[in-house]
Amino acid sequence: MKSLLLVSLYIWTLSSLATTDRSRYEILPTDPTTSTITEELFYTVINRVESLYNNDFAAKGILVDFNSNWETSYFSAWAHNDNPPLYSLNFWGGIARIPGINEYGWAFVVCHEVGHLLGGTPFNTLESFIWASSEGQSDYFAGAHCLKRYFDAFPYTGEEVELTPKIKNECSQNHHCLNAAKAALSFTNIIRYIYRDTPTLSLETPSQQDPVTSILKSYPDAQCRMDTIFESGKCANDYSSLEDWVCKEGPGSRPKCWYKN
User: Fold this and answer.
1) How far apart are CA 171 and CA 58, in angstroms?
2) Rounded to 5 degrees, what are φ and ψ at 147?
3) Cβ-proximal residues to 252 (8 Å cutoff; 6+ apart), any chain
4) What are residue 67's DSSP bridge partners?
5) Cα–Cα distance between 181 and 117 in angstroms, integer?
6) How do residues 22-50 score in pLDDT, each as one tens digit?
7) What pLDDT was estimated at residue 16?
């Protein structure tokens, strides 16, 4: 059996750490945090996303177990090909308690994992993971498809997230674009918390990476992931099905910092 570990996706073990700062690799349910994800909301978001995609999983002929544990203190969420057509999507509570995570960011994490199963091409090219959509594609699916469905069905009711005038103008009052921007801001707190040497990230300073070929065996860099989430929200294609939902060029298309046609 193979499992795809995603920051969705980072599993941290005690043996791999050379620090006594427990917060670097785990956050207990009783630890203070600025995350607004409660135990109830942790499970609610997962259950909502599952309900939105049950029919799509069935149409693809795959079975999916959603496994979640709020009490687990470590930082991970991952997709696992248990025994195709059986797959599992797995979530540990510690990752949802990382400071700065709100419903936008947590919904993105859950949507990203769904994207490994439903995001389509391009797929991961590592032999063990060729069954899964690549990391960049899963990020793109989360913003261009899943988050749109999620917030259409379950409007956000938490404390509002402020965006800069430039980003608001770039979204031109498109609520999907605005939601994607807010999800990107929240999600990147996970990257910056785990990798504390991550450079400053901003929606206003897109990645300058320009790889020769698409990045399919690993994560794009942190800024590129942020760009992908934000840009995906601009895609105007139909997200009611898994047909023709990808914007192949123009606004809402996959950024060149990881994707090459």
Assistant:
1) 34
2) -65, -30
3) 144, 231, 232, 233, 234, 235, 236, 237
4) 90
5) 23
6) 888 899 999 999 999 999 999 999 999 99
7) 42
Could you write out the three-class secondary structure of 222-249?
HHHHHHHHHHHCCCCCCCCCCCCCCCCC
Residue 117 · residue 79 · CB < 8 Å:
yes
Q: For the chain, how far is it from start to end, CA to CA, in angstroms?
A: 32
DSSP assignment, residue 129? G
Q: Identify the CA nearest to 141 among candidates 167, 120, 172, 160.
A: 120
Bridge partners of 133? 123
Q: CA 253, CA 39: separation in Å to the nearest integer?
A: 35
The amino acid at 155? P
For residue 137, the tally of other CB atoms under 10 A from its CB is 26
Spans of the chain, pLDDT less than 70: 1-20
Residues 113, 105, 19, CA angle at the centre, nearest 5°? Answer: 85
**How far apart, in Å, are the Cα atoms of 140 and each of 28, 42, 165, 260?**
31, 22, 24, 14
How far is it, in rounded angstroms, from Cα 107 to Cα 103? 6
* Structure token digits, residue 229: 């989430």
Neighbours of 247 (CB within 10 A): 18
Residue among 253, 151, 261 at smallest CA distance from 245: 253
Residue with tokens 């060729």: 130
DSSP letter (8 states) at residue 82: E
**Are 235 and 247 within 8 A, CB to CB?**
yes
Whether the link from the prior residue into 122 is cis, omega within 30° of 0, is yes
Q: Evaluate whether 88 touches 67 at the Cβ level (below 8 Å).
A: yes
E strand intervals along the chain: 2-7, 9, 63-69, 77-83, 86-92
